[in-house]
Amino acid sequence: MDNEFKNIVDSLKATKSITRDQFAYLLEKDGEDNREYLFEAAREVAEQVFHKEVYLRGLIEFTNYCRNNCYYCGIRCGNANADRYRLTEVEILSCCDRGEKLGFKTFVLQGGEDPFYTDEKICSLVRKIKAAHPSCAVTLSIGEKSYDSYRKYFEAGADRYLLRHETANEEHYSKLHPESMSGALRKQCLRNLKEIGFQVGCGIMVGTPFQTTDNIYEDILFMQELQPHMIGIGPFIPHKDTPFRDEPEGSVEITLRLLSILRLLFPKVLLPATTALGTADAIGREKGILAGANVMMPNLSPVKVRDKYLLYDGKICTGEEAAECNQCMRRRVEHIGFHVADTRGDHPDFVN
Ligand code: SF4
């Protein structure tokens, strides 16, 4: 094994910090022994905190309408080919009922930035879910909102909020988004969410067009400042109806190494092995868990809308019923020697 690689991993594990050069070395230096050493170090840290438990989140993709036009996203408002849908409140509540019967303790309500779902509608939905499932957590993933809106959602009972920052570098941000959107605003949203009291998740895609290793290092610096409770990362996968249709897919290998580095930097963070990782590699999610991730997000959305919530091409798990997805995910977790937790799976700082 490469001595320098080993020393950097050891130092990262001991100090929970990494320099720009060390980071580039861990991402780019090849060698099977090297990568295994990194993955094993991350696995050990995850095991100390989470004891081989994997948390499952029931994902409910409730609207694919979005007012934004991010260049990488299949449900961007400029995509006239997207077959738009909204789930009704009754449909969403019945997804949660089914989810709790299947053993889920967290529901993630995810959607585009859809003005149809006013704050009142979101708050009413959150209150109804919490009343029907008091032992479950509700995570929202519905984009940029005002401080006041976030506060209302929190007061209605929402526990967590996911908002990928996409890239911490302004110039890179402007190459992925139209002029109407700003990376600074997105970062401010995350700070606001944290101040209000949510368990907060940020994140990026690996291998987006124009992304450099330095950009990803800037993401790490931003995460060190924000101290998120969750970090969502997955490889960039192009969608055929977006301006990035011909761009190459992000690397699974870099994604896995980054997962491990994040685990070593943030031992307690909730780190999903994402669906995008499972799309880019048939056993990508298992590899993610073995690289230090500790969360999976099976789909609870009704099958009739699954193939309409396509942020990228080739997305897996669009045909299976919730029960099948649940069973499949549990089998995958057990197959690699882990087990699914039967708790809410909060960030350790939020566990009483
Ligand atoms: S990435 Fe999010 S905000 Fe951007 S177009 Fe897609 S759903 Fe909308």
What is the CATH third-level topology name? TIM Barrel
Ligands, deduplicated: iron/sulfur cluster
End-to-end distance:
42 Å
Return the string of H and E elements.
Answer: HHHEEHEHEHEHHEHEHHHEHHE
**Could you say which overall geometry the principal axes of the C-alpha atoms support?**
globular
- The share of residues in extended strands comes to 5-15%
Low-pLDDT parts are none
Q: Rg to the nearest angstrom?
A: 19 Å
**Major beta-sheet overview:** 6 strands, parallel
**Count of domain modules:** 1
Number of discrete helical segments: 14
Give the proportion of residues in helices. 40-55%
Would you identify the CATH H-level superfamily? Aldolase class I
Biggest sheet strand order reads 2-3-4-5-6-7
Query: Which structural class is indicated by helix and strand composition?
Result: alpha/beta
Q: How would you state the average pLDDT, rounded?
A: 97
Tags for this model:
binds iron/sulfur cluster, 3-stranded parallel beta sheet, 45% helix, TIM Barrel, 6-stranded parallel beta sheet, single chain, 352 residues, alpha/beta
